[in-house]
Design brief:
By secondary structure, the chain is mainly alpha-helical. The chain has 5 helices and no strands. It is extended. It starts with a helix and ends with a helix. The mean pLDDT is 76.
Length: 106
C-alpha cells in the first residue's frame, strides 16, 4: 500500500482512524458526532431567532410610538436601498392577498 492509498483509506493502526472510531461509537461518553453538531446548530438558530424576535418587538414599539409617518419613511427608504427584495416582497404579498380573495369568493 503506497502513501496515497494510506491517506485515502486509513488502517486500524492509524491514530486518526482510532480517534474517528472512538468518537463515532454509539454509547461512548466522548461522542459528539452528529448529535452534538445538530445540538449546536439548533442552539445557534434558537439564539438568532430570539434576537430577531427582540428586534421585531423593539421596531413594533417604535412604530407604535411614532405612527404611520415613520412606517412610511422606513418602507420608502428600504425600497430605495433594496429595490429587488422589496419588489419580491410586494409580489409575494400580492399573491397571498390574491389567493385569499380567490378563496373567499368560493
Amino acid at each position: 500500500m503506497d502513501d496515497r492509498e494510506r491517506e485515502a483509506y486509513p488502517g486500524p493502526s492509524d491514530r486518526a482512524w482510532t480517534q474517528a472510531t472512538a468518537t463515532s461509537t454509539p454509547g461512548n461518553s466522548t461522542t459528539t458526532g452528529r448529535s452534538g453538531a445538530v445540538g449546536k446548530a439548533v442552539e445557534t438558530a434558537g439564539g438568532l431567532a430570539m434576537d430577531a424576535v427582540e428586534k421585531t418587538r423593539e421596531k413594533v414599539a417604535e412604530y407604535r410610538d411614532k405612527g404611520f409617518e415613520q412606517v412610511s419613511r422606513d418602507v420608502t427608504e428600504y425600497t430605495r436601498s433594496q429595490p429587488v427584495p422589496a419588489l419580491l416582497i410586494a409580489a409575494g404579498v400580492g399573491m397571498v392577498v390574491g389567493l385569499l380573495l380567490g378563496l373567499g369568493r368560493r
